[in-house]
Amino acid sequence: MRVFSGIPLRDVKVTGGFWGAYQELVRNTVIPYQEKIMADEIPGAEKSHVFENFRIAAGESEGDFYGWVFQDSDLAKWLEAVSYTLSAHPDPALEKRADEIIALIGRAQEPDGYLDTYFTIHQNLEKFSNLREAHELYCAGHMMEAGVAYYEATGKDSLLRIVQKLADMLYDRFISQKTKGYPGHQEIELALVKLYRVTGEGKYLELSKRFIDERGKAPNYFDKESTDFIVWGKPNGDYRYNQAHVPVREQREAVGHAVRAVYMYSAMADLAAEAGDESLYEACLGLWDSITKRKLYITGAIGATVDGEAFSIDYDLPNDTVYGETCASIGLVFFARRMLEICPSGKFADVIELALYNSVISGMSLSGTNFFYCNPLEVTPGVSGSLYGYRHVLPERPPWYSCACCPPNTARLISSIGSYAWGAGGGTVYSNLFINGSVKVQNTEIFLDTNYPWDGEIRYTFTGERSEFCFAFRIPEWAEAAEISLNGEIVDLSANLRDGYCYIKRVWSANDCLVLAFGMPARRVYAHTSIRENVRKTAVMRGPLVYCAEGTDNGGELQNIILPRVAEIITGIYDKDLLGGIVPLQASCIRLLSGDALYSGVPPREEEATLTLIPYYAWGNRGLNQMRVWFGE
Amino acid sequence: MRVFSGIPLRDVKVTGGFWGAYQELVRNTVIPYQEKIMADEIPGAEKSHVFENFRIAAGESEGDFYGWVFQDSDLAKWLEAVSYTLSAHPDPALEKRADEIIALIGRAQEPDGYLDTYFTIHQNLEKFSNLREAHELYCAGHMMEAGVAYYEATGKDSLLRIVQKLADMLYDRFISQKTKGYPGHQEIELALVKLYRVTGEGKYLELSKRFIDERGKAPNYFDKESTDFIVWGKPNGDYRYNQAHVPVREQREAVGHAVRAVYMYSAMADLAAEAGDESLYEACLGLWDSITKRKLYITGAIGATVDGEAFSIDYDLPNDTVYGETCASIGLVFFARRMLEICPSGKFADVIELALYNSVISGMSLSGTNFFYCNPLEVTPGVSGSLYGYRHVLPERPPWYSCACCPPNTARLISSIGSYAWGAGGGTVYSNLFINGSVKVQNTEIFLDTNYPWDGEIRYTFTGERSEFCFAFRIPEWAEAAEISLNGEIVDLSANLRDGYCYIKRVWSANDCLVLAFGMPARRVYAHTSIRENVRKTAVMRGPLVYCAEGTDNGGELQNIILPRVAEIITGIYDKDLLGGIVPLQASCIRLLSGDALYSGVPPREEEATLTLIPYYAWGNRGLNQMRVWFGE
Q1: Which residues of B touch A526 (CB under 8 A)?
Q2: What is the pLDDT of residues B272-311, one digit of tens each?
Q3: Which residues of B fall within a CB distance of 8 Å from A562?
Q4: Chain B window 440-469: which residues touch A at a Cβ cutoff of 8 Å?
Q5: Taking the CA of residue B538 as centre, how many other CA atoms within 13 Å lie in the half-sphere pointing to its CB?
Q6: How far is the C-alpha of A310 from the C-alpha of A381, rounded, in Å?
Q7: Kind plus residue range of the DSSP H or E element containing A486
Q8: In the predicted model, is pLDDT for residue B226 greater than 80?
């Protein structure tokens, strides 16, 4: 069912430009920083204890387990990021370090393949007795993803063998022995598909399908689990939180814990693609619509409420109390990528890009050492992070979290972004994201050169042998007056445009040069009027970037800034010294000022002012500060 | 220090008009209904068990205590309402019932004067061991207020003797025996002043002053209380919740639990007045400003946050997640009344009236049998009362609450409103509120006749003997083009106006007729721009009434209704059949309608529509329904 698949990372280069800089940050700063975090070597940061947990489980150190039941997954995601980084940038020292860590993981694995330091250390606890809460299958899934990534990056099967042994044990338990159950936090389902794809072992696909198919069937498995071991609380019979309230094929509304949801939807799309499973695909399409038509922030954030880190009801998208977990946006990228591979439609690629450029990278400081868990669209110091109902919405990025799922998730996505940029299948090569670098495919190497997202000119240069294939490149939905030229000749775009992609089939020769150019004026965006908080407001975007105002540039009381509909939004000059290099925007605006009275018969007076906007992802890098995305218009 | 004091209720009549109808509702419906509630005779309502608790404490019934530690206070407040009702409307059957209940209370009192069924029934618990939480002094205070009220209404000292015995026991403990401590929930302080005023016993004033003076002193008493008996939780060292974080004289910001706060501020004003205590009065003035300049809703609601039922930070006044407890507005009326008696300034009387006509009576359905605890300014079914952060904001009034402080509090305030309307002192008679009826004072009887709040003509007719005194009547701050005439002759208002009151000193004769008339067009109100939620919005008031829109009259999606600044707000005709009789308002408005897209480059289209507004207090009487006070302008 898949029309195309991503290009293996070894065949993709990301060089320079916006994402090159991000990958460099991950390579040079984020990966070493997170390793130090897991070794508890960063003073003032939340304790991690991850390495020590593995040493204790391996019998090489004394002490107690520390952290959450899912603490192991931090290491797995970090190893995955390391793998992707090694794919493009061989680094013997880093690889040696990874090999040592993998060896430690191997020593922490139990003889039967079981791998989870929480349960290995807590020998009194019964394994697999609380699938709803205990995250064993979740951690297993992340370790499988790491094993696949490390194998693909280095050719070494050390971690792959570890996770296959683990997967074989799980297969034996849940398939051969017909033990009931499925994970409370989905993740292993998509990991098993990856494991199947790299090993060709159909049993892994079978196990993934089993977990998906059993989920939500009555009588509910979570009601039947009986254990004395409770992590947070006993089951209450409502499994919307876990997307286990009804069988997955019947689900059409995105509900519950947002990360669990999109991880599951990703696996559903994978399984639909592998098996041509139409009923699963129908569910995916319905869930996609539920998210993108009624439950998505303009930034690509999802999961509006702190109550269960979950999706709220339709159109309930508050800007100031939003949860918008970084991991949820990352999971949305996973889901969108899989939907795109089944059906190459711009609507999926646009959402990938929206989340990547906004709510994903807003999760990390420009320094690479501080991280957001929640990604608000409106922050007021003294309120955000402080008052009841706003305490989860931190106004500044801390150096780490006790629940540190987001930081290594961000690292693994950024370091693997090349595989999202390109795809190939059915004689067609796909360019989904405009990321500087190159791809080796179809006996050719295609180079992409651009200043995107700062301007809208994308230059593809073809090298290598003559090769006939169809080249499909994305035209963003918002692109203005897009034009294409091939070797200097204008090509009719509309004749070749289908569903957000332009398809050009020909024999490509060395030095063929295809240029896509579109206007990228700052544009206003209006929300559906059922989103209560955004009525009579506008947000500003340019290209894929959402813009925001910070107090640093605009003084305080941002709620009083009105952007009149007639005010032109002026695109500034790229400033390499500002916030790591950005194009700021400016507009004339009105600032409302009231007198001292709490209530008055006199409307606030209006003062002319200038509104300066910066890309949303870059907010919160200049100290404690007000921030706002939506402005009165 | 008091310039005037309220007129005893036996000398005031409330007849007909707006408040006459409310008092009739209290007399005929609310009092019998609440008696049935306390007898657990209303099916489907929360269990009360109040009468049974007293019977068990008296040894006349078997069983366990049921309810909160402050359950007794429901009966006390109900008896107070009964007393005020009997003052104006003798009712032998009701009085007999009250006598029986008072006798039961007497039998539940312990030999040493102790009176609190929670502790009398729970004999294992140590009395006065957890003043911070256990509400013994709070319940004592309410019983004292009832004792005073019943004595003043009927001349019977049965309940007065009970509460004096209780007060004497407390005096012995806290003054004679020098036992440390003060109540966690203030209330007894103001009650002791009432008890002092009616008995002339200085020791009650002394005890009140002791509680006020000791409060918040370091080391904090609540830190020192040691008990195994915990009601909700151990002390955490932060006593802002109880206004015991610093000595009361140092308090300038209204913080913590709003009801506790305003009950305490009321007692502070009482004590300042009794003793001419300037430092206490200074604190009262500062706290008054804190509330009215930075923490007051347009409706008179206070206590913005559910987190501790408390004041939030300055200007944090959300409309949809507001707490705005009915009791807090009632307590604000108490505080304002005392401030007014010290300094007859219109600013105090205006706030009394604002709260009375809006956030107090919004707490009760027009039927008198359903009650709000929280009084929101914006309600959306499916959100309010349902979603996290909104669960306290019920969109419809339930028949009772497990914590039922508000319903009997509303009853006692409405039934005593006559004493707020009038005052006398220093040879001046004060007319503070425009309430139909009459007052006997200065050997004369003054009749007040008006359709207020539906129009702005108030007619005072003087009867009885010729009498020289100054007559001071309030001119509301918002009154438009107020004019006065005496026996048909225009009198210069401005020459006689001082601080919101017009003073006319003369020998008043029978049939003197003074008419105050002012315009009362609907007017727009704008909030301070630091109130984030109300920026670019307007609310509509007419006279003392805040108006609101309901879905019933305006369709759904009220957030999309824009009231253009140029739109005239048209005052309707009084409709006696609508919501118990109201004057509705109408205006042309714009309704915004977007397409289906969640985000779009196209602004919502604008449709002309008509906005129908009803008085805020009357909302929620026509089924589940959207409601909103602030509109985009």
Answers
A1: 594, 599-604
A2: 999 999 999 999 999 999 999 999 999 999 999 999 999 9
A3: 536
A4: none
A5: 20
A6: 24
A7: strand A480-486
A8: no
